[in-house]
């Protein structure tokens, strides 16, 4: 296994190609590092010397006093080989090569990339990239990224072959309450490939979920061998891009990746226990589910809705996802009869027939309790249980909105209590496509979605993971 600790937990970082120009990456990268309060030493390298960002500048990395754990090179591709050789001669322990113009650019770039790999491997110096947007590491507060992104700290680690998509998910995930432990934009992965990063994260105790954005791998057997081991310890979520013929061509010009057949990748994912995200947005939905929800031990879903239409949509969504919406046991029906009005649906879905007090006056939690404790139910979808569209910051209706916000908070607390008690997932779905309800409870150990179709797909994939682990 490659030792990547100098990359993700360096005590000192040097930026080769530092610049005083605020529109150049040589200025943006060290600025991001400084703004995020990196725990270690920072050295700026520029042949002109002088001063940048109020810091001393060294003309050559060899002039830096003391050891350098990580060198970040922000220079044109044609000059990078000499900078790599200087770093190796200095005894730098790891390198990130942000520059593009290598294997993704054609045969000439591939030849230069191969020469660089020969140099670093000859001295056993791990290299990230080239053609990368950098890394993030929560343990040392290092945000060595091109965009000014400050991820929320947490238990997710993310390996991405797209720096743009990767950093966008870091930002969006934070808004949804998701925190990240480590992130790497692996770029062309000339030296360190996805399997190497996976193997490193296998023993990382702070990483609870691993996310992959993939365009292709060079060594499929190595990737599968590592992924099988890792997925038994922690969930791996993968989004595979480059599924169409044009997408494969785009991947080759983007990172030089060998995209390959999407069906081959799907089969490999199933064999390795990797959960495949159908869309980029589903990456964060799955990550939240694996972090906060118990896995369903079967595919039978109980549905509770505030209105009949959502019950029909939820039923269709579950059936389409390969889940079952079973008939309710007599014992369950009798218990529900004691709570609900005589004209309720008498089945699954359980329709509250627009009974607002069912949500507000404590009947909904009792209904959830009856369903989730039933041996015939493995998971519950609760549509309308969390009231979307309630904005507690509206001063004109402060009393009204404060009341409903408190209702939501009580309902969230009850769901968390029931999930811990019965070890079954309960997923509330807002009745409107309103992200405010999701964001407001993002710090809680709960998952709220605004789409019934997404909810059903997530439950089906969670059940797939349960089956893999039980095999």
From TrEMBL:
InterPro entries: Acyl-CoA_Synth/Transferase, CoA-bd, Ligase_CoA_dom, NAD(P)-bd_dom_sf, Succ_CoA_lig_flav_dom, Succinyl-CoA_synth-like. Residues 7-102 form the CoA-binding domain. One of its GO terms (molecular function) is ATP binding. It catalyses: acetate + ATP + CoA = acetyl-CoA + ADP + phosphate. It is an enzyme of class 6 (ligase). The keyword Ribonucleoprotein does not apply. Its EC number is 6.2.1.13. The keyword Aminoacyl-tRNA synthetase does not apply. Keywords: ATP-binding, Ligase, Nucleotide-binding. It comes from Candidatus Methanolliviera hydrocarbonicum. This is acetate--CoA ligase (ADP-forming). It holds the Pfam family CoA_binding_2.
């Amino acid at each position: 296994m490659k030792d990547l600790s100098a990359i993700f937990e360096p005590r000192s970082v040097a930026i080769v190609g530092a610049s005083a120009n605020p529109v150049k990456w040589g200025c943006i990268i060290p600025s991001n590092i400084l703004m995020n309060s990196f725990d270690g030493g920072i050295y700026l390298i520029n042949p002109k010397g002088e001063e940048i960002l109020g810091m001393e500048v060294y003309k050559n990395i060899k002039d830096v006093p003391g050891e350098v754990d990580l060198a970040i090179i922000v220079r044109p591709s044609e000059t990078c080989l000499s900078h790599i050789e200087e770093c190796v001669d200095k005894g730098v322990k790891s390198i990130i090569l942000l520059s593009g113009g290598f294997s993704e650019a054609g045969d000439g770039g591939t030849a230069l990339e191969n020469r660089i790999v020969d140099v670093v491997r000859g001295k056993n110096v791990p290299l990230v990239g080239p053609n990368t947007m950098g890394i993030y590491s929560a343990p040392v507060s290092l945000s060595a990224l091109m965009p000014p992104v400050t991820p929320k700290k947490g238990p997710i680690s993310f390996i991405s072959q797209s720096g743009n998509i990767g950093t966008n998910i870091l930002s969006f995930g934070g808004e949804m309450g998701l925190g990240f432990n480590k992130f790497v934009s692996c770029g062309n992965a000339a030296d360190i490939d996805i399997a190497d990063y996976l193997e490193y994260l296998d023993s990382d105790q702070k990483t609870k979920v691993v996310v992959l954005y993939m365009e292709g791998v060079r060594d499929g057997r190595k990737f599968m061998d590592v992924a099988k081991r890792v997925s038994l310890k922690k969930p791996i979520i993968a989004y595979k891009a480059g599924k169409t013929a044009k997408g494969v061509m785009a991947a080759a010009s983007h990172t030089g990746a060998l995209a390959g057949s999407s069906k081959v990748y799907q089969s490999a994912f199933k064999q390795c226990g990797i959960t495949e995200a159908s869309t980029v947005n589903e990456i964060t939905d799955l990550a939240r589910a694996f972090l906060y929800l118990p896995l369903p031990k079967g595919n039978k879903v109980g549905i509770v809705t505030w209105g009949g239409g959502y019950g029909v949509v939820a039923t269709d969504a579950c059936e389409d996802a390969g889940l079952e919406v079973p008939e309710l046991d007599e014992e369950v029906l009798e218990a529900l009869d004691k709570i609900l009005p005589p004209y309720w649906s008498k089945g699954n879905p359980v329709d509250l027939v627009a009974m607002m007090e069912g949500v507000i006056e404590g009947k909904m939690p009792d209904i959830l309790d009856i369903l989730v404790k039933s041996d015939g139910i493995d998971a519950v979808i609760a549509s309308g249980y969390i009231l979307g569209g309630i904005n507690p910051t509206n001063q004109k209706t402060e009393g009204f909105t404060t009341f409903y916000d408190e209702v939501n908070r009580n309902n969230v607390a009850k769901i968390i209590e029931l999930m811990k008690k019965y070890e079954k997932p309960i997923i509330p779905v807002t009745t409107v496509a309103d992200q405010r309800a999701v964001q407001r409870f993002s710090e809680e150990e709960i998952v709220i979605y605004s789409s019934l179709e997404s909810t059903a797909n997530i439950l089906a994939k969670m059940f797939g993971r349960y089956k893999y682990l039980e095999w």
